[in-house]
Amino acid sequence: MATGKHTPNSPAKDNHMANFETAMKDALRQHGGAGDEQVNITFGAVVTPNPGGIKEYVVTITPGP
User: Fold this and answer.
1) pTM of this prediction?
2) CA nearest 46: which of 18, 21, 23?
3) By C-alpha distance, which of 1, 9, 8 is closest to 17?
């Protein structure tokens, strides 16, 4: 299992895909996959209370079915 994280400078209210992309790159650096294999990818976020925003983006790669 590999978990990538990205913490923006302040809680994000937009550009979520760019922030998830940074977390995905972190997870892929950690993933020691053995070539072409199917994996499961889970996207998660730590959300701040009102007025709200995403404090941390998380991408987890686990073995496939």
Assistant:
1) 0.89
2) 23
3) 8
Is the previous residue joined to 51 through a cis bond, with omega within 30 degrees of 0? yes
What letter represents residue 59's amino acid?
V
Q: What digits encode the pLDDT tens for the residues 36-63?
A: 889 999 999 999 988 889 999 999 999 9
Query: For 16-42, what is the mean pLDDT?
Result: 92
Cα dist from 8 to 32, 42, 50, whole Å: 26, 19, 17
Contact 11, 57 (CB under 8 A): no
Domain region containing 59: 2-63
Count of the separate structural domains present in the chain: 1
